[in-house]
Design goal:
It contains eight helices and nine strands. Strands 1, 2, 3, 4, 5, 6, 7, 8 and 9 form a nine-stranded mixed beta sheet that branches. The longest helix has 21 residues. The chain has 227 residues and is α/β, with parallel strands linked by helices. It has one domain: Spore Coat Polysaccharide Biosynthesis Protein SpsA, Chain A (Alpha-Beta Complex), CATH 3.90.550.10.
């Protein structure tokens, strides 16, 4: 198996069908599987997953943080390359081939570009959320080394991810913690804008402001607590 796409899910029935459809529509000679790790307390996500033969559905009864869902998926995945995406990210055509080229070029930890899915979300809150959380991952940004990558579209050589121990089971900023830990271990992180995804942002303006404030406080606390 070449590529395993791992998606954590909790009540994603409103977005997951379109995400899976885009994945299964990728035209590539590469062998791929989709590992959907779900902790919903209903069968709606399972029913959608069953419509796609490329999807390996894994259910957990206990709710998990997204990072733990990704860890579960990585452990059962069979691909050489792990692609972690969120349930509301639609990969652009050619994303599999672009990610595979990055891996074959020697990159072992890298992220893709995230643009706003304006067909599904285009109000003020969507643009604000997209800019605050994804402005460093937009497609016009230059390729190269990075200090942090977004777990909404993040790729690993599978052995590197497993050896690092995966994501910590913490409620927020799991990707920041993991990428900082990888850098401390000597790994280089890369941004590859030709691996492109379009993300839906559908939070209310109040929730966007709350998340932005909470993330900013966490970043300040983390920075000031370091020796």
């Amino acid at each position: 198996m070449d590529i395993s796409v791992v998606i954590p899910s909790y009540n994603t029935q409103d977005t997951i069908a379109a995400t899976l459809d885009r994945l299964c529509s990728q035209r590539s000679p590469l062998q791929f599987e989709i590992v959907l790790v779900d902790c919903s307390d209903h069968s709606l996500v399972r029913d959608i997953a069953n419509r796609f033969p490329q999807v390996r559905y894994e259910h957990r009864t206990e709710r998990f943080n997204p990072g733990e869902g990704r860890n579960i998926g990585a452990r059962i995945a069979q691909g050489q390359l792990l692609m972690f995406i969120d349930s509301d990210v639609h990969l652009a055509p050619g994303a599999f081939d672009a990610a595979w080229r990055a891996l074959q070029s020697g990159k072992e930890v890298f992220g893709g570009a995230l643009e706003l899915n304006t067909a599904a979300s285009s109000d003020t809150a969507a643009y604000l959320e997209h800019y605050f959380f994804n402005h460093e991952a937009q497609a016009h940004r230059p390729a190269g080394e990075r200090k942090n990558l977004s777990s909404a579209l993040m790729c690993f050589r599978r052995e590197i991810f497993l050896d690092a121990g995966g994501f910590k089971d913490i409620p927020r900023m799991q990707d920041t913690e993991l990428t900082e830990r990888l850098r401390d271990q000597g790994h280089k992180l890369y941004f590859c804008p030709d691996i492109l995804g379009f993300q839906i942002q559908n939070s209310s303006i109040d929730n966007v402001l709350k998340k932005s404030t909470s993330t900013g406080r966490t970043c300040i606390t983390s920075a000031t607590s370091q020796p």
